[in-house]
Amino acid sequence: MSASATPESLPAPPASALRRERPRDSVGSWPLIDRAAYLLCWAVGIGLCVAAGAIVVFMLVKGIAYVRPSLLFTSPGVGATQATSGGFLDPIVGTLLLAALGILIAGPLGVAVAVWLGEYGRPAALARAVESGIEMIAGAPSVVLAIFGLLMFSRPFLAFLSQTSAGGSVFGRSFFTAGAMMSLLALPLVVGATREGLAQVPGHVREASYALGKAKITTIRKVLLPSIRRSIAGGVTLGLGRIIGDTAIVVILLGATLHLEGAGGAPGLSTLRGTGGTLTSYVKYFSPAGEGNQAEKAYAAAFVLLLMVIALNALVTRLTHDRRGMFERMIAWSWLPFWQRTTNEDSP
Amino acid sequence: MSPTRPPRARRIAGHANPTVVEPGPFTPAGSLPGRATGPEGDPAPGTVAANGHAAQGAAATGATTAGAVATTRPPASATIERMSIEGVWLAYGDRWVVRDVSLPVRQGEVLALIGASGSGKTTLLRSLNRLTEITDGATRAGRIALDGEEIETMEVNALRRRISMVFQQPNPFPMSIYENVAYALREEHAPGRRRRRRSRRELEPEVVAALRRAGLYEEVAADLDHPALRLSGGQQQRLCIARGLAVKPEVLLLDEPCSALDPISTATIEQLIVELRCDVAIVIVTHNLQQAMRVADHVAFMHLGELVEYGPSAQMFGAPRNQRTRDYVGGVFG
């Protein structure tokens, strides 16, 4: 059988005979309106690049002038001068804590909601209601979410999430409460990215799993979610960026204090039930418009914040546009027992 | 015609069309001397498998490669009827796409469903393991039985482990080659039973056996932990076949398994299908008439949802009885 199907090998033409295929269509041949639209697209693209570049360069120049490694490892001080007001270790820790809490809630919840909407979606009326709810949350200003969170978490039955005053009133401000509301900021991004990923998985992949006698839930867990892990990772990373960059919830629900103020009790739990601040609230506090009014500290912290956001964006780009499948290889490699891991080209 | 109230199912046996051949006892291939021509009556299927249909088919359609396949195909030692399709009607919404089809599916032979696009071949194939159920608005009438038991009454995941399917597009899962096959082997968690995850040591022999049966093991033996998506199209499709075979099915459904593959991969998979038919009942849907000639023992021609003609491959390609079959096989339409 194979003999009849094997093609005869033909000699390749000489290299000199090869010419590169090029598109024959040129912009010059387009109608005027199309050329104008094309130029407008170029101009807008370049304008956006210039704006983004200006922000980065400005913050880079300002930030590098003031940032010192010691600032990253010292807590804010009480001094009124640049030399005595310390660094921003606490805001960095606060940022990381809040981001971790928010995404720990938003990640699984967002994926679960997206899977339900994308793969089940019954009853249809409930699915439509959930979709509308997510769209509403995505469009709501974070300060509205923060006010709602403060009202909700000040209820006595949720007192265990924050601190209670001597008079018995619940503060409603803590990493727990701020993290919960921050998760609402990230949730629509995770849901959107996951649904987009699920929609891109061809139907025949699901059917291939069903045809092996696998239940729908097994197919989702073992086939679909691993297939779209890049989309999920992209949504999670975008959500992290949203959490890191928000200020309103930090001010209203976290207290926006310079130091991490524990609520007492077990060390870790004390911090999570206590108040604190993040880099955004730190920048706001020390900006020329803030109470601290130490611009150098604000520039340095903003520079660090910008670096974190740029790193996250780079990670998103890497995860979502990785044509060489590095992420898949990384995951596959991480599943291997350590004695089978090699450092050849197939392993990251 | 209402899809919720299908017409009373009719059996092919009582069909007015005399060209539809009654499912009958199959003569084991090779047990009869070659009878290359047999326009009158039902030629012995054994001759089809051995040497008959290829030459006739080639004459009828101009195929040139079928002879090579037919001479290399091993004879099937015996045939057992595994499935029966009786008076099956299928509809999507209010549109009937399969009308009153009755066919036997036998282990020991390959049944090819041929016909133009939209003739209902794939829908019929998908109904055999109840995959049509996942399509909204699909309805069915008639009886489909596996080993005498109606598939409607069987637990659907258990049924699909007994009737496995390979699709048109190679669709390996985003896992390693090993995991693709091991995934199929891991049983579904049954309610009330304690979940037990089988170790790699337990699964590996079965994975290797499935890959060997699909003729892939030699090519991937050193790369079992590499991502399956890195395999070539032909290798991916053979991996899908290995995955389907790993669950030890009684029936293997193939939906145009070679349509996206190059001729060399196609030849490999066709050889595999011919070899597998001794152990598994195989139903293949194909647009490629030459492929049907090369691999099939029996052929069913469907047109606009109806089963126009069913018979041994030699008859279907050499001397079809129905004018529409003659036209389709002769290339008048399709």
Sequence-ordered SSE layout with sheet pairings:
The complex is a heterodimer of chains A (348) and B (334).
Chain A: H1 2-5, H2 32-66, H3 69-73, H4 89-120, H5 124-139, H6 142-153, H7 175-200, H8 203-210, H9 216-227, H10 229-245, H11 248-254, H12 267-273, H13 279-286, H14 295-320, H15 326-335
Chain B: H1 45-50, H2 52-61, H3 66-72, E1 80-92, E2 95-107, E3 110-114, H4 121-128, E4 138-146, E5 149-150, H5 156-162, E6 163-166, H6 177-185, H7 200-213, H8 217-220, H9 233-246, E7 251-255, H10 263-276, E8 281-285, H11 289-295, E9 298-303, E10 306-312, H12 313-318, H13 323-329
Parallel strand pairs in B: 3-8, 3-9, 6-7, 7-8
Antiparallel strand pairs in B: 1-2, 1-4, 4-5, 9-10
Please tell me about this protein's structure.
The complex is a heterodimer of chains A (348) and B (334). Chain A has 348 residues and is mainly α. Chain A is built from 15 helices and no strands. Chain A has helices spanning 2-5, 32-66, 69-73, 89-120, 124-139, 142-153, 175-200, 203-210, 216-227, 229-245, 248-254, 267-273, 279-286, 295-320, 326-335. In chain A, helix 5 (124-139) packs across helix 7. The longest helix of chain A has 35 residues, at 32-66. The model of chain A is unreliable at 1-6 and 337-348 (pLDDT under 50). Chain B is of the alpha/beta class and 334 residues long. In chain B, the strands form 2 sheets. Chain B has a 6-stranded mixed β-sheet with strand order 6-7-8-3-9-10, with helices on both faces. Residues 8-71 of chain B have low confidence and may be disordered. Chains A and B meet through helix 1, helix 8, helix 9 and helix 15 of A and helix 3, helix 5, helix 9 and helix 10 of B.
